[in-house]
Write a structure and sequence with these properties.
heterodimer; A: alpha/beta; seven-stranded mixed beta sheet
């Protein structure tokens, strides 16, 4: 990695360069429905970029794991099956926050490791990622999950120094972009000092870190505690949390037929473990029939399941679920509930009908 | 129950479309769907109340029913339909939840009649019932909710029915679909929206046009009304107005819950 300095206005040149080199440039832009909201979308002009955004409604995961991805088409009259090849379109993704880059690294571990996903792989390989620095919002807890810093998973990273960008150049592709399109200068001692100060300001603005050292053990120890019933009573089972979560990656595979029933497609769509269908199997058996079972499962997967697998919790503290959940269920509440004084439920209560 | 084998044997299943109490909007919606032509040849549309003047045949394979049950004669008709058809499909809010006709159920039937018809109240048929969904009278194999229905959803479901697939009615509220297409949340913007408890599956159509959900697809099976009301109270929203808005399409279910 090496570092350069560019003027604030040079973002126009960066955009132009990426637009010349990539089929599509996407980044944070104002929602047409309400200017207070930002979503990632196609950028047609550098002025559309909102690099000072706080958060986006949906994280950039949508560019790697599409909300609705066709896997194949078939013809029922002939029995022919046509696999859908992943699209080869290239994309530059500008303005990704450190938490979201860390989340993409989590998804890499899911989709490029033991079971390689051909779609994810192609999207990932064909995407040039430009990270951007941010300042914490009241809903941010990235530092508790070690996601406030990012050292890989991007090509270029822009740190905001007020009138100029401190540019971290990580990939060969990024070096070529800087070389070809940007009027970049060397980093001076002043720039480095300003960068350090910015980092200090950022760290100072972060909330107090939650102590998560005991969380996986505590979770197992309190797996049958009544706290889950309490939280379950609140869950709206809407699944909005899964949609906005940059680390949630579950999907459902569906078959959809044409109106005449002759041809069809198999596609995968985002799913949520908070939906009652999620754990339903043949003969209508449901492994998690109650909302309480499902909430407990969702966070168990994040804080224990994935942690025991690779030492990472499936949360980057981006705060999107804190905003999206109308039942006020978020990681902070789960951590607090697990830390609070509680007693195990009596065997009778858990089995149902045996309470005194 | 779905008689899938019988359907598979029939090369061209005979389908009838009939209405109970409704404004025929869902039948019109089917005619608005150009892909309907694609279905010609795969089904035999034996009877279509809106488009034919002939009598309903005595024998058919699939019955598509629109409208709410509001009269004794509806009950008798449905019982006959259930005996005849291998597959029964309820379409539209009226047939699935009782819909707008169900609003009468918020009060007394005679008071409502006098209020609507005044001096002409005598023309109103006798043997009226509290409006109810088709499923309250007979077993329904498939449901297409919504006011009006989405013709694409209807044709897709019809194909599933002909294949004998299990009904796959969405159970969760609308929020996940609405967030997926990144609509700024109405609640966060200080406006009430019934999507919080309404069955998903419409693709958040109204919300994408910046209109709040009115609950036409019915209360989601997974919905948590108590928690939704808690959220409203804590957020300073009008809980009574929320419940009132919910009645427009869901009076029957709200009353059912109150009774149980």
């Amino acid at each position: 990695m090496f570092f350069k300095i560019i003027d604030k206005e040079s973002i126009v040149d960066l955009y132009a360069g990426l637009a010349a080199e990539y089929d599509e440039v996407t980044g944070p832009k104002t929602s047409p429905k309400d200017p207070r909201y930002v979503k990632f979308g196609k950028i047609r002009d550098a002025s559309q970029l909102r690099l000072d955004y706080k958060t986006s409604i949906v994280p950039p995961k949508k560019y790697f794991l599409a909300a609705d991805e066709r896997l194949m088409r078939y013809d029922r009259t002939t029995g022919e099956v046509y696999d859908t090849e992943p699209p080869l379109q290239t994309r530059a993704l500008i303005g990704v926050h450190p938490c979201d880059i860390n989340a993409i690294l989590m998804l890499d571990d899911i989709f490029l490791n033991e079971f390689e996903d051909p779609y994810y792989k192609v999207y990932r390989e064909n995407t040039f990622i430009v990270g951007v620095s941010c300042m914490p919002s009241p809903t941010c807890t990235c530092n508790s999950f070690g996601a406030d810093e990012v050292h890989r998973g991007f090509d270029l990273f822009l740190s905001d120094l007020g009138d100029r960008w401190f540019v971290s150049v990580r990939s060969v592709k990024a070096a070529a972009i800087v070389d070809r399109y940007l009027d970049a200068r060397e980093v001076t001692a002043d720039d480095t000092r300003a960068f350090q100060e910015r980092t200090k300001r950022f760290k100072k603005a972060l909330p107090k870190r939650m102590d998560l050292d005991q969380l996986p053990l505590l979770y197992d120890a309190k797996y049958d505690y009544p706290l889950w019933e309490d939280i379950g009573k609140d869950c709206l089972s809407c699944g909005a949390c899964s949609v906005v979560c940059p680390c949630c990656y579950c999907f459902d595979v569906r078959d959809t037929l044409s109106a005449d029933g002759r041809v069809g497609k198999r596609h995968r769509v985002w799913d949520s473990c908070l939906a009652s269908e999620f754990a339903e199997v043949a003969h209508n058996h449901n492994f998690r029939p109650k909302a309480a079972d499902r909430v407990r499962y969702r966070f168990y997967h994040k804080f224990v399941g994935n942690f025991t697998r690779n030492g990472k919790m499936l949360c980057v503290g981006c705060g999107r679920c804190t905003t999206a959940c109308k039942a006020f269920i978020d990681p902070q509440r789960i951590v607090k509930a697990l830390e609070s004084e509680d007693t195990p439920a009596s065997a009778g209560t858990r089995k149902g009908g045996g309470a005194q | 129950m779905t008689d899938a084998n019988a359907l598979n044997q029939a090369s061209c299943p005979r389908v009838v479309v009939l209405s109970l109490a409704s404004d025929f909007g869902c039948q019109i919606q089917i005619t608005n769907f150009p892909e309907l032509l694609a279905m010609v040849g795969t089904i035999d549309l034996s009877y279509w109340q809106l488009a034919t003047s002939a009598d309903m045949p005595d024998s058919y394979d699939v019955a598509v029913i629109e409208g709410a049950v509001t009269l004794d004669e509806h009950v008798r008709l449905l019982q006959q339909v259930r005996k005849t058809a291998g597959v029964v499909i309820a379409i539209g809010a009226c047939a699935v939840t009782g819909g707008v006709p169900g609003l009468v159920g918020t009060g007394d039937l005679d008071t409502a009649r006098d209020l609507v018809y005044g001096e002409d109240a005598t023309i109103v048929k006798q043997h009226r019932l509290v409006p109810a969904p088709v499923s309250s009278v007979i077993e329904v194999d498939y449901r297409v909710p919504g006011c009006p229905i989405d013709p694409a959803e209807f044709s897709a479901l019809l194909q599933q029915a002909l294949l004998g697939a299990r009904e796959r009615l969405d159970r969760t509220p609308l929020c996940a679909a609405c967030q997926t297409i990144e609509n700024p949340c109405f609640w966060l913007r200080g406006k009430a929206c019934l999507g919080l408890v309404t069955r998903t599956g419409c693709g958040a159509l109204c919300l994408s046009r910046d209109r709040a959900c009115t609950g036409c697809r019915g209360i989601a099976a997974d919905a948590n009304l108590e928690s939704a009301r808690r959220y409203l109270r804590e957020g300073g929203f009008d809980v009574k107005a929320f419940d009132k808005a919910l009645e427009v399409y869901n009076t029957y279910e709200v009353n059912e819950v109150a009774r149980s």
